[in-house]
Specification:
single chain, alpha+beta, eight-stranded mixed β-barrel, 22 helices, binds ligand C2E, binds calcium ion
Length: 726
């Protein structure tokens, strides 16, 4: 998601930079265009100057050659026509001729003077537009004739004329009066003999033309902006040295603008194309990256087994859902399958995967439009669904649990699954962090998992406090075991008739340096869930053995002590052997130690329990059935299980409604135990009345607050086990 956003930012960033660059280049192009025009006029001016210079040099060179030829003629009066032909080639002229003075006087109208001169443009005898260069020929101090050479104007123009912009701009050579000396052979040049000044006068304001005429008169270089032939032109003018001629260059303003515009546009198009190319490339790369990122995200966000979202994606989507301004109340559900490991172990992983897919299908079906779900890992699923109230959330949860648990279509022989569910209900106005919302559903699930049936729990503040306390306990339990904070308390058991102490039950206490003495009800259920209890049990058992050893060593008369063990031991095959080894280590005589197993454990695994009981009893342990009456009170059980002691749960005595009927039941239980040669202990005896009743039965021992509460070992020793000789 984040990556996609970054990609978009990159894309729009590139687009913005592109746009700015475009604006900049347009601005820049405007500037360039202006500069180019300035430079173009400078260049034109320069070219006109060069052209003028070349022209004047060439005319001088041509005249020099003619003068040289005139000198030859002055030496030799028999200058032949053939030699004149050679001279024509030498001076590069159209025609050359020698005209003596007589002829000169007579006929040649084209020869207008007897002195050296360069003519204006005119039509020659052959009808060709030409220019004549003429020098006088002297002999013996007297002029005898002239020698002239005619030059085609188009030949001269080819050498000195300038054309620009595909012929749109061109040069003329004019004289001081504006008369054209030579011009390009083009349409416009048809007006060869018309004065440029006349044309300009015709089309422009007189002061502008006068300014231009002044340039000619004063033989200065300059540039003017005038209409010529109906077109606005740049007109550059520069004098030809040594003659009354000027080179003028005419370029239509529009052509020059078009030209610079064209260049700028071409470069703009080129850079535009390049920018587009680069842009397309960046776009392409970013598209590929986007696709790649999307693919990666899809892989990263998809749960392989169910094809749905995984927890990362779920949290991301939940975040969006929670951040919506007007969102409905939400139920955030967390589901867990009880003993899913068993499905995998018993039916194989493919079957396990099929079950997970089934769970996903149910969620997918119920999730509908407004909800989201995911597999949160292993056999845990999450669902966030709009629910109007807690009641509706509970109804939805039950429907889901019912459908999820039914896996008969997948594994026919498997029992329906037990699905736990924790629900966090979030009102539409409540604002909460995603992680916190998910954690709360998780806390509710933990609570639901404490029960062993098919259930759900809602998150509440009370639950939060409880779980927080549990977290503190869990965080400290290992250290507490290491530093000996778990200690046994002893509660004496007295003979019903003698009221003498006969034995004691060891009951664990957590002697916390921060919280004082913590009763087992607070931590034992948690230790049973988190698997820590066997460690505590063994630790207490070791303490009890050490205590008995101490009493024996001190020469006290030891009394039997019973210890409690949790059902978790039954899953450890080495359980009886471990206890035997400890008993052995402390050299505890037989029948001093009694192991208490609860009635509820009996339903786990008959065969196993029977085996455990016989091993323990064979090795000098007594075995007691604890809490009889709290559960199923199966009398049948007593026949099958070889217990030494039956402990009748305090529930029988605790109630003030002490009916005759209950007395009858207790009495018959005690009688039956007696007949089975079992010792009976009545727990939780608190009143004289209860004691009176027990005295009327064959119950052996009693344990209760009436006679003694559980107490520290030192108190117990002091009250009940005086050291011999003290
Ligand atoms: P439990 O084995 O049934 O132990 C008897 C409980 O009843 C003790 O509670 C005892 O203090 C209490 N009790 C005795 N007489 C009376 C009476 O007259 N009135 C009332 N109201 N209560 C009486 P405690 O010590 O809090 O232990 C609670 C439970 O914790 C035990 O029930 C046992 O299930 C478990 N537990 C205690 N120590 C251990 C242990 O070392 N290992 C294991 N696994 N469980 C233990
Ligand atoms: Ca007990
Ligand atoms: Ca008990």
């Amino acid at each position: 998601m984040k990556n996609l956003r970054q990609e978009n930012i990159l894309f729009w960033g590139v687009a913005l930079i592109g746009f700015l660059l475009l604006c900049l280049s347009l601005l820049f192009a405007g500037n360039i265009e202006r500069k180019m025009r300035e430079e173009s006029t400078d260049t034109i001016m320069e070219l006109a100057l060069k052209s003028s210079l070349l022209l004047s040099r060439d005319l001088n060179a041509k005249l020099d050659r003619l003068r040289l030829a005139a000198r030859f003629l002055s030496l030799d009066s028999h200058f032949l026509a053939e030699e004149l032909g050679k001279l024509r080639i030498l001076v590069g002229a159209l025609d050359t001729a020698y005209v003596d003075m007589r002829q000169l006087m007579k006929k040649n109208a084209a020869v207008q003077a007897t002195q050296e001169y360069v003519s204006n443009l005119h039509y020659g005898e052959n009808g060709v537009r030409q220019i004549r260069l003429q020098v006088p020929v002297h002999r013996e101090g007297k002029q005898v004739g002239v020698l002239y050479a005619d030059y085609r104007q188009d030949g001269l123009y080819d050498a000195y004329g300038l054309t620009f912009y595909g012929g749109e701009g061109f040069s003329f050579v004019i004289n001081d009066d504006g008369q054209i000396i030579f011009s390009p052979v083009s349409n416009r040049a048809k007006r060869t003999f018309v004065s440029v000044l006349d044309i300009l006068r015709h089309e422009n304001a007189s002061e502008k033309v006068m300014a231009f005429a002044r340039l000619l008169r004063e033989r200065k270089s300059g540039i003017a902006n005038l209409d010529f032939n109906g077109i606005r032109q740049f007109i550059a003018v520069t004098p030809v040295e040594g003659r009354n001629w000027h080179t003028i260059v005419l370029i239509p303003q529009e052509a020059m603008h078009r030209r610079s515009h064209q260049i700028v546009m071409r470069s703009l198009t080129l850079s535009g194309l390049m920018a587009v190319g680069v842009g397309l490339f960046v776009f392409y790369i970013s598209r590929i990256r986007q696709r790649h990122t999307r693919e990666l995200l899809e892989i990263a966000w998809t749960d392989k087994i169910t094809g749905g979202w995984n927890s990362g994606k779920f949290r991301e989507e939940l975040k969006q859902l929670l951040s919506r301004k007007h969102r409905p109340p939400l139920g955030i559900f967390k589901f867990d399958v009880r003993h899913f490991k068993y499905v995998n172990n018993a039916y194989g992983y493919p079957a396990g995967d099929a079950v997970l897919r089934h769970l996903a299908d149910v969620l997918r079906k119920y999730c509908g439009e407004g909800g989201i779900w995911c597999r949160d890992g292993a056999d845990t699923f999450m669902l966030a669904y709009p629910c109007g109230s807690e009641e509706k959330a509970a109804i939805r949860c039950e429907a889901l649990q019912a459908e999820m648990s039914n896996i008969s279509d997948i594994i026919a022989s498997c029992q329906p699954l037990i699905i736990f569910c924790g629900i966090f209900f979030l009102g539409s106005k409540e604002d909460i962090d995603t992680g916190e919302a998910v954690d709360r559903a998780g806390m509710a699930l933990k609570q639901a998992q404490k029960s062993h049936c098919y259930t759900h729990e809602f998150y509440s503040e009370e639950l939060y406090r409880q779980l927080r306390d549990e977290q503190v306990i869990e965080a400290n339990m290992h250290a507490a075991l290491r530093t000996g904070e778990f200690i046994p308390y002893l509660q004496p058991q007295f003979g019903v008739h003698s009221q003498k102490i006969m034995s004691a039950e060891a009951l664990v206490r957590w002697n916390s340096p921060h919280q004082g003495l913590i009763p087992p009800g607070v931590f034992i259920p948690l230790f049973e869930r988190n698997g820590f209890i066997p460690k505590v049990d063994i630790y207490i058992f070791r303490q009890v053995c050490a205590l008995l050893r101490k009493w024996i060593d001190e020469g006290r008369q030891p009394i039997g002590i019973s210890v409690n063990i949790s059902r978790a031991h039954l899953f450890h095959d080495a359980f009886p052997e471990n206890y035997m080894a400890i008993k052995e280590m402390y050299r505890i005589p037989d029948n001093l130690l009694e192991i208490e197993l609860t009635e509820s454990m009996m339903f786990e695994n008959h065969v196993k329990i029977q085996r455990v009981l016989s091993i323990l009893r064979d090795n000098g342990f007594r075995c007691a059935l604890d809490d009889f009456g709290a559960g199923h009170s199966s009398l049948n059980l007593l026949k099958d299980m070889p217990f030494d002691t039956l402990k009748i749960d305090q529930i029988f005595f605790g109630n003030t409604l002490y009916s005759k009927r209950r007395e009858t039941i207790i009495r018959s239980i005690i009688d039956m135990a007696d007949r089975l040669s079992m010792q009976t202990v009545s727990e939780g005896v608190e009143t004289e009345e209860q004691l009176e009743f027990l005295r009327s039965t064959s119950c052996n021992l009693l344990q209760g607050y009436l006679l003694a509460r559980p107490m520290s070992v030192s108190d117990f020793e002091q009250d009940f086990l005086p050291q011999p000789g003290l």
